Amino acid sequence: MNKEPNECMRALRKIIGQTQAEFAAMIGVSKDAVVSWETGRNQISDTYARRIALATGVDGRCLRMGVSVPISQSADAHVYTAEDFARHRASEWGRTDEEGARRWLEHCADTMELLLLAAAKPSGDKLRHQLPGLMDSFMQWCESAREDFQLGRPIDAQLETRRQRVGITQAQGVWRAMNRGNPEGLKANGYVEDPTQGDAEPVRLELEMVPEWAPGRSMKWPNPSKMKLALPA
Question: Is residue 2 part of a domain?
Fold first, then answer.
């Protein structure tokens, strides 16, 4: 038996003035997921109802109750409006996304400190060595967040601003192997193969490098854990 369309979900999206694709990007799901919720093909889970409530200020329960209009989560519960959305965004998440990001960066740093230190138990504690598992959980979350919210390109753009000129010495044979795999990249960074040099001869090049995405590891100079050749500016 077909389920009833989720009119509350559809009404909320229209109130805040977003297409299905825009709404999906905001909460980190596919457009098809939003379509399936609105048509009633799938029921929205508690997890995503909570995420939508955090993002919009709507009462997440109304998205799962079969009501036709969204309700504000404010003390004087009322039919949700575009003004509620604007107030919620400004008060909870900042006047701009960047302002909100700076604020939450501080909160999240404090949370990570508490988690890491809690996992660093005294040597006499029988429940030890939880740090590797905790870090793997964190790194998996980072990868999922990067994918779910389509953040690959903007993250790469931020890493690009960290480009540095780095002096690297390695055997000519290694440079030749790299040149076969990426001739344009090495050429743009000043590599010119000298056929008179043997493979074992050390060669130093000054290269433009950028850190690579490596959650849980350093992505800042002087010691990023992974680097790649920077594209020509």
Answer: no
